[in-house]
TrEMBL record:
<dbReference type="InterPro" id="IPR029479">
    <property type="entry name" value="Nitroreductase"/>
</dbReference>
<keyword id="KW-0288">FMN</keyword>
<feature type="domain" description="Nitroreductase">
    <location>
        <begin position="37"/>
        <end position="205"/>
    </location>
</feature>
<keyword id="KW-0560">Oxidoreductase</keyword>
<dbReference type="GO" id="GO:0016491">
    <property type="term" value="F:oxidoreductase activity"/>
</dbReference>
<keyword id="KW-0285">Flavoprotein</keyword>
<dbReference type="Pfam" id="PF00881">
    <property type="entry name" value="Nitroreductase"/>
</dbReference>
<protein>
    <submittedName>
        <fullName>Nitroreductase</fullName>
    </submittedName>
</protein>
<dbReference type="InterPro" id="IPR050627">
    <property type="entry name" value="Nitroreductase/BluB"/>
</dbReference>
<dbReference type="InterPro" id="IPR000415">
    <property type="entry name" value="Nitroreductase-like"/>
</dbReference>
Length: 229
């Protein structure tokens, strides 16, 4: 929470200065690329427990992300309670059934066909953790007065990327899930109106017989995602 009494600028020395040789940097970049290339979105999880400390550290890594005016406009609701996961699944599947009832003529549903998804979401109760990502539209000072948050979608998107990378680094698998609408998550998790649910991350260990869609193995080459000027 921001301190309304202390909003002045005060510069301090860079606390963690990293200086690598070009050779070291090239090696580190290649290693990180290889590590992330092994991340795969899965829908088949085991119920093997994941220690809470791992989730805490991954969320703290996400919390170190840059944000507009350093307001850190995010909140991560980590759920391991089975009854609460069941509630989230039931309400999410209600919205999913409405979505898939639109039929195969719907452009979005047709785009999902190679992915092989449907309205059933057993991963929401099988995996040991769900992390619901919320975006905070505004914040509050200690006296209850509001302050505006800036670049909220961009900031939350960066933090979520940090979180996904951290979870992968910890040897965990995950799945992004975005039922629409998601307002039921505010009620289920007792979150205020200032927060908008962005996505559910299903987190745990992939099942031994887990599969991925063949199309998901295709990633655009460098010349399709970047241009150097």
């Amino acid at each position: 929470m921001l301190d309304k009494r202390n909003m002045s600028y005060n510069a301090v020395p860079l606390p963690d200065h990293v200086s690598l040789s070009d050779e070291e940097a090239i090696a580190r970049a290649a290693e990180y690329r290889t590590q992330l290339s092994k991340r795969h979105t899965v829908r088949d999880f085991t119920d093997r427990p994941v220690p809470r400390k791992i989730i805490e550290d991954c969320i703290m890594a996400a919390g170190s992300a840059p944000s507009g005016a350093n307001h850190q406009p995010w909140f991560f609701a980590a759920i391991s309670d089975q009854a609460l996961k069941q509630r989230v699944r039931e309400e999410a599947e209600i919205e999913e059934r409405k979505f898939y009832a639109r039929g195969t003529d719907d452009e979005w549903i047709k785009a999902l066909e190679p992915i092989g998804t449907n309205a059933e979401k057993p991963h929401l109760t099988t995996a040991p953790w769900l992390i619901v990502v919320f975006a905070q539209k505004w914040g509050e000072f200690e006296d209850g007065t509001r302050y505006k948050n800036y670049y909220v979608p961009e900031s939350v998107g960066i933090a979520t990327g940090f979180l996904i990378s951290a979870l992968h680094e910890a040897g965990l698998s995950m799945l992004t899930h975005t039922p629409n609408p998601m307002k039921f998550l505010n009620a289920a998790l007792d979150r205020p109106a200032s927060e908008k649910p962005i996505m559910i991350l299903t987190v745990g260990h992939a099942a031994e017989d887990a599969t991925v869609p063949e199309v998901a193995k295709y990633k655009k080459p460098l010349d399709k995602i970047a241009r150097f000027y």
